Amino acid sequence: MLDRKEDLSDQELIDCILERLYGDPPPLGVPKEVLVPFESANPSLYEEFLSAQRGSKVTVRIPHRGDKRELMETVTRNATEEFSRHRLKRAADHNSRARALNDLQQHLGLPEAPLRIECYDMSHIQGSDYVGSMVVMEDGLPNKREYRRFKIKSDQGNDDFAAMEEVLTRRLTAYVEERGKPVAERSGKFAYPPQLLLVDGGKGQLSVAVKVLEALGLDEEIPVASLAKRFEEVYLPHRSEPVEVPRGSEALYLLQRIRDEAHRFAVSFHRELRGKRMTTSVLDGIPGLGEARRSRLVKELGGVTAVKKATLEELQAISWLPDSVAQAVWDKIHSPSRRDLR
């Protein structure tokens, strides 16, 4: 469920949804066919990724006719109606936020209502462009000025636990260093601890967070919990069973909202890095195609894949792109060396 409009194209939104649904293997597995209302910005990448998850070929396509087209229309209509109900039910007001925070304190056994919650998530595709995100809610509302993004510096491969450990260590070490300075010398960037540290995942991610807190001597100061995607279960340290946070409660909804926001923020950063890398590899070094023109071209055509598929006539039809630059772009994409790579 998307609570707010983001600056995403239809193709980028489809990419975000595919990553959100299939980033971790779903309980029912990956289907052999995924129907979407708009084409992905990079369909071959996601078909390859989903095929690897399934162990056999997966296609991602738009249904244009027949029963599957009718099914897509029904799904779209149902989603529109559900979103309207959702917005009415979850209209944010101070009282519901206060109840959610107080309920969280009670259910999680916190010393105080968590007015500042930080949530962390990782994003990658098969280990490439690994990134982490930190999002912050204060008084139950997102504080985007406090959001932080992390490039994973060490070579983690597909190791979410090692990546999470690196991100939490960097953030909490910065807090310890800030705390040791005189107030006038603190930068404010990581000067405040969370009253609840939430990680996206289950017992494994939680154990990593506990390890980092203990290593820095913060385990008695900062409460920590994890929220597992599969069954929306909340785990606390030193407990084998999940904590009972009532389904449909404002408390669980608040945790889900910050977890989903952390995932969205991580995915958007991952997509940004991946897009820069892909754009550089294909469109770098073309005479007359500077950074501004390159970004505008990719955005206007709907992604790097669309640029690669464009004909020379389509490129030259772009009013702001000189014909000579359009020719250079086409020549670079269709040069013999690039055809050999494909």
TrEMBL record:
A single GO cellular-component term from the record reads: excinuclease repair complex
Q: Name one GO biological process term.
A: DNA damage response
Q: Which residues belong to the signal peptide in this entry?
A: none
Q: Which is an annotated GO molecular function term of this record?
A: excinuclease ABC activity
Q: Name one Pfam family in it.
A: UvrC_RNaseH
Q: Which residues form the UvrC family homology region profile domain?
A: 12-213
Among PROSITE patterns, the record links this protein to: UVRC
InterPro entries named among the record's database cross-references: RuvA_2-like (IPR010994), UvrABC_protein_C (IPR050066), UvrC_RNase_H_dom (IPR001162), UvrC_RNase_H_dom_sf (IPR038476)
| Gene3D superfamilies reported in the protein's UniProt record | 5' to 3' exonuclease, C-terminal subdomain, UvrC, RNAse H endonuclease domain
Write down what this protein is called. Unannotated protein
Q: Where does this protein come from, organism-wise? A: freshwater metagenome
